[in-house]
């Protein structure tokens, strides 16, 4: 099937570019001796996870137990879940998963560690737990090397847990300093930090500049998006994910309406201007959205589209866009090669 | 099952409130002789659509053919699709649907009308088409009564189409004026405007103040959200949809992290401050989101939550939240009564 026969809006992935993106990051990380553990929250598609592992990734990263369950069912054998897993029901699911695959998680509090330890004890297994620390972004994570060292010691003392190292996001200079200090604090206890997991796509080509970070988690690098373009980490020709839309209305000389809105692109701006880049009309601006309509200003475009014309959009943020589609169409040239269900979309946390 | 046993994040709907919301709007519209055609984009759940029809709605409104297909399969017999349906594949699906249910659509251009007419002719059926006009919001829609009248005449002349009236969003004073002028322009041609479809939830209790609007389309009124609260159309006790989340991290004395982020709440702000209202901590502010985390400032709260505590969030915009869940849990009091798949979520446009 030719891509022009696909109904819009449709999310397409150029398979040549996808493969090239996967291989390029793997090569770079291999050259620098950094472990690659890509984050599958971007695509949520088991076959792409397998492509990443086959290219050399040690395993994958998931953000929800539900994602990890889908990936385990699809045969992925090594999964990192950098999340504070809390609550009996979730802990039980986590332990069921830990029996089937090589699994590790994170914690940033004693509360989380206690829950993990109790669940692992009941399940009679040993679970590796990394300490999450805050490298400056103000999300989760302990705030100081002292807290990190204390929590590492707590993990070491906790039945059925193994201290798995440190984890942060993104990899940056703060992280290097933080890791160094934490290691020093733990040296006296004979506790070694065997793994430090960092990551991000925008800073992926600087991973080698952070000697303390031994593992890299990138997600968006497989697809690329406007945010990644702006960061300079990827070029327009690297973008594998696009959304084809149709101009369904031209109410005024300057305004055009696309058949994709906030339920296609999400409202994520990430500091960008407008809701996407229209490849055929780069001067156009998707200035507003309703749920199924994209409101576009074509006033700066010399030629303007006709009603019924199809236009190709690079979205602001690929991770949230793929999460809005039930399926993604893999293309080679102009031909449809595969239609992937977004297997882990909407999975339970 | 008690709601406290549900894993978080979970979207719950209070069924008593849902039923009350459905009945209250129906009663109001009945009193004023306004046709009720609720928009199911908000919930995308066939059973709720049936509740709306059983309460007295003439039928439903869908925003995508895929939604209409799901609703038709579930036994809904009267569907309005206020969208410019363009392209051969979509037109064919539309005609298949038109054979099974009472269906009407909109157009705001001759291009759309030509496509509809050709498809209806091939399918050997008659399709009602309403002219969409712009009441000031700058989305789709013809811009002037003259354009509306011209397009109505085109529809009347087009084989296998029937002019079904006028449609806009939202109902407002501009709309009344626009309809009045369009009717005058069409009077000479003997073309009557039998139906004028308007709508919105924020302005729903003013529907009777727009004498030219004969049909009301509201979506959010079934659930309510922070945006609807701010508009004054619904009170906090009317809100039927909530998202229960867990505090999974307390990195600092003031900061708390919820297990719901932009893939749970979307990034829709709709002019509001923060990403949701936490009922147990109304002074808290969800100031940021990552995909599976909500970053919350509890500094203004006298008591602050513990890790592991569950908190209940009224989201900014219910329509995009339900679109992110595979299922919605219907509760009565504290007990789970039904778990609904969000049947039309992610359906093809």
Would you kindly provide a brief summary of this structure?
With 349 residues, chain A is an alpha/beta fold. Chain A has 2 domains: 3-9 and 227-341, Beta Barrel (Lyase, Ornithine Decarboxylase, Chain A, domain 1); 16-222, Alanine racemase (TIM Barrel), CATH 3.20.20.10.
What's the arrangement of secondary structure elements?
2 copies of one chain form a homodimer.
Chain A: E1 10-14, H1 15-31, E2 35-36, H2 46-55, E3 60-61, H3 65-73, E4 78-81, H4 88-100, E5 102-107, H5 110-123, E6 127-132, H6 145-157, E7 161-167, H7 173-187, E8 196-199, E9 215-217, H8 226-231, E10 241-249, E11 255-258, H9 262-265, E12 277-278, E13 285-289, E14 294-297, E15 310-314, H10 318-322, E16 327-332, E17 335-341
Helix pairs in contact in A: 3-4, 4-5, 6-7
Detailed description of the structure:
2 copies of one chain form a homodimer. With 349 residues, the first copy, chain A, is of the alpha/beta class. Chain A has 2 domains: 3-9 and 227-341, Lyase, Ornithine Decarboxylase, Chain A, domain 1 (Beta Barrel), CATH 2.40.37; 16-222, TIM Barrel (Alpha-Beta Barrel). Chain A contains 10 helices and 17 strands. Chain A has helices at 15-31, 46-55, 65-73, 88-100, 110-123, 145-157, 173-187, 226-231, 262-265, 318-322; strands spanning 10-14, 35-36, 60-61, 78-81, 102-107, 127-132, 161-167, 196-199, 215-217, 241-249, 255-258, 277-278, 285-289, 294-297, 310-314, 327-332, 335-341. In chain A, strands 1, 10, 11, 12, 13, 14, 15, 16 and 17 form a 9-stranded mixed beta sheet that branches. In chain A, helix 3 runs parallel beside helix 4, helix 4 packs across helix 5 (110-123) and helix 6 crosses helix 7. The longest helix of chain A is centred in the N-terminal third of the chain and has 17 residues, at 15-31. The first copy, chain A, is elongated. The model of chain A has no long low-confidence stretch (mean pLDDT 97). At the A-B interface, helix 5 and strand 10 of A face helix 5 and strand 10 of B.
